[in-house]
Amino acid sequence: MVPISLVTACTDRSDEAAQFFLRGNVQLQKREYREAVRFYTEALEKKPDFADAYNNRGLAKFRNDDVEGALADYSRAIDTDPDFGAAYLNRAEARLDLGDAGGSLTDLQRIEKQYADSTFYQLRLGDTHTRLNEPARAQLAYDRAIQLAPNNVEALTNRAALFFSQKAYELARQDIANALRLNPKQDAALNNQSLLLAQAGKFADALTYVDRALSVKPTQPYYLNNKAYLLLMLNRPAEALPLVEQSIRLNDRNAWAYRTLGLYYLKQKQTEPALTNLRKAEQLDPSVDALYYYIGKAEAEAGRQEAACAAWARGVTAGDQLAKAEQQKQCGK
User: Which residue windows are transmembrane per the record (predicted)?
Assistant: First the structure.
């Protein structure tokens, strides 16, 4: 949810444009996003320099999964009013959603003085630094967001994800517990709880949490991949395959999904397609957990022991503990 209040029309705007704008606000609050867009468009036809209408139409588009359309509207709002802080904050979120973390940071820096004490600003700053692989700065921002608003569920959830990526599992567990206490239906927190349980080897329990997350967002690609992985761990590969394939169709840049697909083929004793997908995961993100362990296992299954040992050695450098143990066991090092 975009963390700003809806603005109201100013008295110096034409009455007609203002009325359409207010109707759009009502529809936006009712989550009738298509209708909201229609009313804001009417307002802009009456008053083309209506910056608030561009911004709020962007909100409606963003919430209706039209992120590129939202980005264009936020930019029009800023072009119309270069000091429109809320539009910069919203554009930063849209840019991050489209993979432009650098652009997001630029927008956030533009409004830093104005929004430094906003929990939502600090949340987006944390998300942006996370995407830029700057974990120390990300944690500082998340800490500040939670200090400003201890009930900021999204900040707790995202800080937990950061802790999880750093293998600080107890800190992650605490944040997830707090997030779910505040909102038991927070889908990202439910998914993160599933990841924590899976990390502890409690795959059946983990599956119940990811199913709850999917009941909120049935086509979220990360949740689909997580469920596929859990099904593989529970020896249910026939159920796992369509889920991971769907996840990749929805987001073909997720290294974890390619790792899952590689693991599926590895369990089916199909080493070449396993290696193809595992190497794709490596290309996208070599820090994925146990990736080099699985690459080495696939090379060994194919009878290429030297290549397997080389993969496990790369895993040692990457901090892959499973790869390290396998290298010591299989390669005499």
Answer: none
